[in-house]
Design brief:
The protein is of the alpha/beta class and 383 residues long. It has helices spanning 7-27, 29-35, 50-57, 59-76, 118-128, 133-136, 161-168, 176-180, 190-195, 204-213, 235-240, 262-265, 269-284, 331-343, 358-371; strands spanning 101-105, 108-112, 184-189, 220-224, 296-301, 304-309, 317-320, 350-354, 374-378. A seven-stranded mixed sheet has the order 7-6-5-4-3-8-9, sandwiched between helices. It has a two-stranded antiparallel sheet with strand order 1-2.
Length: 383
């Protein structure tokens, strides 16, 4: 009997399954949202590729097929010898995601593994050989440092959001009046705004209208978005979040139906790139002229920035702003650029940044002096 089929292992696996089901009931909607668009590792939160997910979800079916084939060919029809070696079922699992660490020893390649009895072995060896355990423990004894990486080899992230909650716990204010102030410039994290939709419209034309209506009702708004490049240092983080999904959606125009799973649609970088371009094209059209009267919208699309405004109810004016062109990929750093630009404009007394990103908050602390205006960080009701 193999170890996997032993009574102890079966009992342990059953207990773990019951525990996970109980946890999913406790966390409810949060767990459903996390896994609604695919499988993810509970240890690291990393989404798995489609081929790995398919293998994991079809384990039971493949096992039954192999069992039926064994009974049919070796017991009933006897077309194969009973003692003929079984073909290994090469199923991809979460362990397939791990990157093996190897080293060369005596011209042999040795795979480094995380072994729980490694320290015990060192302790025994230290009794006979001159091994300084205090010095040994100054170095990691695992393939990856647990303080820096997860067991499957991905970078470990610090929950920086707790810092923002601690800092704003006793200092949160309601500043609805800022939106009514004509001398206030609003800088909005466009990606976060699109991710926050609770009710998804039926068509992309309605998405464009809903997004525009969600902008602050003030005279000056900066709509800042990410830039998605093929060769990027951010690919590792986007892969962890599930952005490796290649389900590209063809956005034909206003009447194109919005996909059922909005968050799954936004997991694809190409989809987000197409959506941002679509929003810019729509807001540049003359039908938005009435909404842009006495209003300026600075729209970031990839590396460019365009000012949208209207002097009448008939035509929309679109003007490139070269000063705000940037090759920065992340919204957080471009928000700082827009903050500095807004602070140099006449009649700008206050700058409000609407974002839920702790990185933006920390960058604002560092650049607040150079911006030189009253800065307000609007997190909404989430943080």
């Amino acid at each position: 009997m193999t170890e996997q089929l032993s009574a102890h292992t079966i009992e342990l696996s059953e207990a773990v399954s019951v525990f996970l089901v109980g946890m999913s009931k406790v966390f409810g909607k949060a767990v459903e949202d996390q896994f609604e668009d695919g499988l993810a590792s509970l240890a690291s939160g990393r989404k798995v590729q489609e081929d790995v997910a398919d293998d994991l979800l079809s384990v039971e079916r493949k096992g039954k097929e192999l069992f039926e084939s064994f009974v049919k060919n070796r017991l009933k029809k006897k077309t194969e010898g009973f003692h003929k070696p079984l073909q290994r079922n090469k199923t991809k699992t979460f362990s397939s995601l791990k990157k093996a660490t190897t080293l060369k020893k005596d011209k042999n390649v040795v795979k480094v593994k995380a072994q729980r009895n490694l320290f015990g072995q060192l302790l025994v060896l230290s009794q006979e050989d001159n091994i300084d355990l205090q010095k040994v423990l100054q170095y990691p004894l695992t393939p990856t440092q647990w303080s820096l990486a997860t067991p499957d080899g991905w970078l470990l992230k610090t929950n920086k959001a707790t810092l923002l909650r601690k800092l704003t716990l006793e200092n949160s204010l309601k500043f609805d009046d800022y939106a009514k102030n004509r001398n206030t410039a609003y800088i909005v994290d466009g990606n976060a705004l699109m991710q926050s939709f609770s009710t998804i419209p039926n068509t992309f034309g309605e998405i464009a209208e809903s997004t525009f209506s969600s902008l602050p009702q003030t005279a000056c708004v900066h709509f800042v978005t990410d830039t998605y490049k093929e060769d990027s240092i951010k690919n590792c983080e986007r892969l962890r979040r599930g952005s490796s999904v290649k389900n590209v959606y063809l956005l034909r125009g206003l009447s194109t139906t919005v996909p059922e799973h909005w968050k799954y649609f936004l997991c694809c970088n190409e989809n987000k790139r197409s959506l941002i371009r679509f929003l810019l094209n729509e807001w540049e059209s003359d039908k938005y002229a009435t909404k842009l009267v006495n209003k300026k919208v600075f729209f970031v699309c990839e590396e460019r920035c365009t000012l949208l405004c209207s002097d009448s109810d008939e035509f929309t004016v679109s003007t490139p702003i070269p000063y705000l062109y940037s090759s920065q990929e992340e919204t957080d750093t471009r928000i700082i650029l827009h903050g500095q630009y807004a602070s140099r404009q006449p009649n700008c007394d206050t700058i409000v940044i609407r974002s839920q990103d702790i990185d933006v908050f920390l960058l604002l602390l560092a650049f607040s002096e150079s911006i030189g205006k009253i800065l307000t960080f609007d997190t909404g009701c989430v943080n």
